[in-house]
Amino acid sequence: MGGGKTMLEMNKSRRSIRSKSQSQASLIKVKGLEGEDNGTLEKGRRKSENSQSTVQVEIDQSGLQRLLPSSLRHRFADQQLESLYRAYYCRQKNSAVLVLIILSLFFCVTSIILYCIAFTEKKIPPIAILSVCVVINIVMFILLKFRLISDKLFMYTPFIPWILFATEIYVVIGLESEPIVPSLAVGWQCFLAYLSYVMLPLPLRWCMLLSSLSCLVHTIVVIVICILNYPNVYQIGNAVGANIFLFLCANILGIISYFFNDINQRKAFLETKASLNVKIIIEEGSKEQERLLLSVLPKHVADEMVQDMGDVLVADGQFRKIYMSRHENVSILYADIVGFTAISSKCTAGELVKILNELFARFDKLAEKYHQLRIKILGDCYYCISGAPEPRSDHAVLSVHMGLAMVDAISDVRAQTKTDVNMRVGIHTGAVLGGVVGQKQWQFDVLGKDVSLANKMESGGLAGRVHISHSTTKFMHGEFELEPGDGDQREEAIRMAGMKTYLIKSVIKPYPEGTLDEIYVGGMIFDQDDDDNNEQNKEENLNKLLYEAIVEKEATQDIGKRINFITMHYHDTNMEELFDRNRQKFSSVAILGTCVVLVCCFFSYVCIAPKSLFSILTFIIGALLLTVFTVFPFAASSPKRFVGCAVSFSQWLLRKPWLRAGWTISAILVLAACNIVYMFGCDSNISNTFSLPLNSESLNCEYPVYFSYYGILVLIEVTVLVQLGFLAKILILVPLTVVYCVLYAIVLPNLFDRYDIALYGSYNTLATTVSTKYSIVGKAIAISLTLAFYIRHNEVVMRKLFIWKYEADEAKELIQKQREKNEALVYNILPAHVARDFIGTKKRDEELVSQAYDEAGVIFASCPNFNDFYTEDSVNNDGLECLRFLNEIISDYDELLNEARFKNIIKIKTIGSTYMAASGMNLGYSIPKDAPVKERWQHLADLTDFAYALKETLDRINSQSFNSFVLRIGINQGPIIGGVIGAKKPHFDIWGNTVNVSSRMESTGQAGKIQCVEDTMLILKEFGFTFEKRGFVKVKGKGELITYFLTGKDGKNGGSPLPNQPQDDIF
């Protein structure tokens, strides 16, 4: 096996020595995961964060809107975002409307039960109407619960249960049998006013309008009916005044709740939107990177590389992992431009690269049509394969069609350049080893004896013809007319292989006949560039995607599996801790609601209850305490307006969750206590010596039913306290309801019995009427249950939104990690300075990404005797083990580029065992032409040091594996053009006379030597390198050039001397 040991023996030797070497257990290190190469990723992350922070709330100043207070006109600055929020807000109100329907059912059922208990013929109409309302409510509940109506219709459905509930209240008032009093259904009306703000999916101004209208209608109905029944307008006015204060309080509480709900909903929406937005952006970027990745690497190779990214890829201290596999029955096509030298003489380097880019872009489209996998572009040579990595039975037929299409495509170049250029195409079918070699600038490559033969089929072919081997004809199925190719007369390697060759004369079955495409698309090429024109309305599409994501989340998410049904806490303690941290910590405005309730209830009390010193003192003490509870928390946010001790206490209060909760609960208890104290201040002795209209000037509490209304407002205030969670609110709501019910029915029943005697005794209806104390207990329980449903609904909504944000963040992190891996691979496909400009931009196939470099260095380093080492026998796993060793050599070369001294050198590609690199392309700054030689050409000296480092690396490998590989190196300097050909299937390369001469310096050089021309020698002499003149060497296309061999630096050889070995063909 070419003088070396078997791969198994070398593996053992290399294992023992490698454990001490620098490259033991090395990781795949890729640019793009650290330093400036990750700039694109960081830039995208910052952009997404900034996009979230710049979303502001804008004040609408248009038309008559400017006459409204600014607090009623909040909306997002972005109109599309506001529309999206409104659509989302309506969906969120779905379950809130269900709560309203449940309340309406409670009201109807409760009223029907009360009517049935004290049934008379006069109660048949309200019972009938309320029964119809029950049916409507049930139908509405089913339609909304199971989403049986469209989103468009849902925009209007919330009004139906609201109007229904309002109608039920007015039915109770209008059809109520005598007596009619101003306090009738005031509690329900207050509750309806409050629910208008928290359950209807409307802007605040519309909620205010509907609530005010309902209160106004109630007031007008009560006034009209009462005036028709009672002449004492003054007493009616007092009661109506008391009602107005209660309605005002309910509206204020509704506005406060609306603000907090709107703020929390908008904040949660923004957070969810931002998370989903970033996720979508990262996902789109990741897809673009993946598309770019898969355009260069087959999917199975790319997937395996991404999976292994960051893992230790040296198994058991042996060879690095190699991404290589064998493929049988593969057709390999080589195509070369005949007359390329003539084109070069008529075009500048830039024009030449542009022509190549346009031509190879067309070839890429043809390759896509004919199911070819483009492997590489080597100067003016294009080669591709069919039948791998996905096997196809029609691979040979497709390859011939591809070759014929390439010959046709060159005619445009011939017309454009007015030169006699043509394509020479060679095709051979056999087995290949396909995969990636090395650790940097990955490109999928195919290697093997059959690949070399395919190359010889091209060089042994004829211009304008497709030259195929005998093995290819076995898969042709008679679809082409052939004629003898006589390739053995033009190419020695073909003759030595004993192959018969043929030329394609004509096509018998035109494409797609005879191929698998015949049963699919009929061979049509779809223009994928149309996707590039879809950049318009990007924001609208993003919003649409966001809304669809929200809708999908709502439809698929079962929050019941994530939270405890009783406590409403997440099963995941970490998530619960995060949610609690995000909950609004404190709000003095929410506590301010207790002051509003206290003041409104007191003025209402003044209108209908005895004016006593006891009640006034109760109000004053309660007002002072609630003012303290409200004002103290302000001190932390406005320290200049408060004394130091108040500020310190406020800050301490905000830091302690248990203290904040206790502070808030204390405020509610003070409010409830004031209400209860009012009740105990009344005379509860039963007396029926009074009659309608009730007299508010009496020393007795003639309107005790209003105490139940005050209790309703206290229960509503509990729901306003945003700093308390679901469980805390329920633990306040339930005991308060129980206390009120016990007070009404057990502790102070005489208050309400006196009221019943006075109210119903005059009409002889006491026996057919449910006692007020029991009706208000039922009302308190119904409203408390409704509030509990609403509190739970609110908690579910906030926790659901938090889960969305949490899941979006998790998904974003996963996608981000995937994107980082993809981006790292992209940086390993394209040089970092090219990848930074290439990632994130969509380019057409014909778009050329190129840059001219006036002073660059180029090196070719080949291992000419590796061809003797390579064999495809069973001992070496059909050549795979030989390539595994080549992968070790190339990988060790690549690791040299991680050293700081070689930072200005980039790897271009590998061609078999030949390593190509360049310098002066990634300096990041320009050097003046008149700068000293040592400043301008330091990178060339570094490149020369790199050449010596390659030799030293190969020496070390030889000593570990007991082999005798040698390097033959050519180096040159001058102007080049670097760029990416085929933007959709990018291939980075460099072109120019400098590259050609460097390649000739390697191919005409001697094993173990570094050869260069005189200009390069003169520059490197300035850096202390020493040379030996070789003399004139014949160079293809250049005639005879004087060349030199490098002998060392400052009298010392830069690398260990290598033996002179005979020149072999490049593998």
Automatic annotation (TrEMBL):
Report the EC code(s) recorded for this entry: 4.6.1.1
Cofactor(s) of this protein:
Mg(2+); Mn(2+)
Name the chemical reaction catalysed here. Answer: ATP = 3',5'-cyclic AMP + diphosphate
Q: Name one Pfam family in it.
A: AC_N
What's the record's note on cofactor binding? Binds 2 magnesium ions per subunit. Is also active with manganese (in vitro).
**Every Guanylate cyclase domain range:** 331-458, 857-1002
Summarize where Mg(2+) 2 binds, as residue positions.
336-337, 380
Q: Where in the cell is it found?
A: Membrane
Mind telling me which InterPro entries this protein's record contains? A/G_cyclase, A/G_cyclase_CS, AC_N, Adcy, Nucleotide_cyclase
Membrane topology, from the record? Multi-pass membrane protein
Q: Could you tell me which SMART domains the record lists for this protein?
A: CYCc
Keyword annotations of the record: ATP-binding, cAMP biosynthesis, Glycoprotein, Lyase, Magnesium, Manganese, Membrane, Metal-binding, Nucleotide-binding, Repeat, Transmembrane, Transmembrane helix
What segment(s) does the record annotate as region Disordered? Answer: 1-55
Q: Which GO terms describe its biological process?
A: adenylate cyclase-activating G protein-coupled receptor signaling pathway; cAMP biosynthetic process; intracellular signal transduction
Chain residues that bind Mg(2+) 1: 336, 380
Q: Which CDD domains match?
A: CHD
One GO term in the molecular function aspect is: ATP binding
Of the GO CC terms on this record, one is: plasma membrane
**Membrane spanning stretches:** 96-120, 126-146, 153-173, 179-200, 207-230, 236-260, 586-606, 612-636, 657-680, 703-724, 731-752, 772-791
Has keyword Magnesium?
A: yes
Biological function: Catalyzes the formation of the signaling molecule cAMP in response to G-protein signaling.
Similarity comment text for this entry: Belongs to the adenylyl cyclase class-4/guanylyl cyclase family.
**PANTHER family cross-referenced by the UniProt entry:** ADENYLATE CYCLASE TYPE 1, ADENYLATE CYCLASE TYPE 3
Instruction: Return the protein name.
Output: adenylate cyclase
